[in-house]
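Q: Two folds, back to back.
A: First:
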Amino acid sequence: MADTFKALVADNKTGDYQVEFRDLPEQELPSGEVSIAVEYSTLNYKDALAITNKAPIVQNFPLILGIDLAGKIVESNHRNFKSGDVVLVNGFGLSERHNGGYTQRAHVNGDSVIHIPKGLTTKKTMAIGTAGYTAMLSVMRLQEGGVKPESGPILVTGAVGGVGSISISLLKKLGYQVIASTGRKNETEYLKSLGADEVIDRNILSASAKPLQKTKWAGAIDSVGSHTLANVIAQTNYNGVVTTCGLAQGADLPATVMPFILRNVALLGVDSVNTPIERRVEAWNRLDNELETKKIEEIARVVAFSDIMIHAISLLEGNIRGRVIVDINQI
């Protein structure tokens, strides 16, 4: 075991928010039931916000960033895990209240750990990451709300992003007609390769919304929020279901109750952080069985841990599509 390991740490000890790589001795990590040698992490929108301090993600200082991790257990005091097990952790307050996955060694609560399904590897798991896991939770919410392929088309906003890209692939595999909304029309072929039947310009959804509009879809997976979500709801069919999991345009929702009380539309929230472990396991098993991981790997890029801050800025500027895998040992 190395005497120290690399970690990306956020701190405010000088009164200013700072993010830097540090060489940490393992004894500085808080105690945890499971010690993991981290192999891969991811770069998500939330990670980029934490790295650049564009939103108050981090609640405790100093804190290792990164909401995802996958690797091999080095030592375990938890009944469900043993040394050598290949596992993943995502959410559960990583990079908010607890040290996250941007580290070569992690100590975590055993109740937050999941065995990686047999059809996946640590790298494939992080090609999916929290974005793909959130996409699966969103699809599950649509299905539980009664939306079936024969119900009508499903809209996916923020389609070029991680949640959007994997949502499209999942929905297509399950037999749904998919409409993708994006501001990057040059990515039309990319979105169609994932399974989108139609690609629309996000600008038609991003302006102020009328309370009720012509219905266009049976359901939607939204990661944008604000005016976009309000327009999506106003154009959803009777008995339709809209899921919401993000706020790329904004955290506000300038809508009315009209679609809910006149069209019986349901708005369902999707939380990826505090989801119970049983539902997490269900979601990851379904990803293993239903997601065409080869296609997702093709649209994922692997970046060096040392370059993560550059890519975080690029992601916030809208210059990254699909998934970003972080090779923790490439530094």
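A: Second:
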Amino acid sequence: MLKNQPLTELDKKVMYWESKGKEVPTRELVLSQEQIEGVRRSGVVNTGVLDEVARQIHAGMNTLEIDKICMDYCAQHGATPACLGYEGFPKSVCTSINEVVCHGIPKEEDVLEEGDIINVDFTTILDGYYSDASRMFIIGKTLPEKEQLVRVAKECLEVGMEAAKPYCFVGDIGNAIQKYAHKYHYGVVRDLCGHGVGLKFHEEPDVAHFGRKGTGMLLVPGMVFTIEPMINMGTWEVFIDADDPYGWEVISADELPSAQWEHTFVMTEHGVEILSH
């Protein structure tokens, strides 16, 4: 709410929920139409990066080659990879194979093989606006169990998207995802979450992929955030790879495969709209 300005309907609804003791967004988390358009333009490039990866990815290539694809596409479109150098991350993209849940670092020695599943996660900065998305890729033909995991992880994202309504709560999203994943006896990673994005790489709210309805931050039109459930074939628990000198790579605790899909969304008066996928 801005001082000396008349209350909008949005202000009134936010104040109502705040009076009920709920966590509500600050004005800074509600983007203007101009800012949303900036994120949308960034999202077009971000989606284009993943489209280009989809066109070129194949068995026998190494993940350093994926990094080059992403770097080259960004450079050709006047954008910057947000991951490069972020808190010491050494590459432009995260490439997470099989039991690597997220934050896998591209390496020449990581060669994709028939049957692998891999998550490619990329964040674009264009004109100061951030967009973030990831996709799963199945290399050739894989085991039916892996194929199902990849499919259900995408369905978890879709279930979370359907649960994200204006003036709902972050916990509504997590609750829907958790219930769906548990039908398949999969673990929903709890140590990592979706997040606000747009003007920064990571900002409020934290979007957990498990939880109770009516908890977490109120979601209102104009907020931009990711939903990115990490779904493990076994336990939800994870650990950091001790052999990773950068301390980034997250692995499922039982070393069973993991899958993740991520979109950037803007909340509207009618539900979420995808800005990058």
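Q: And?
A: The mean pLDDT is 96.
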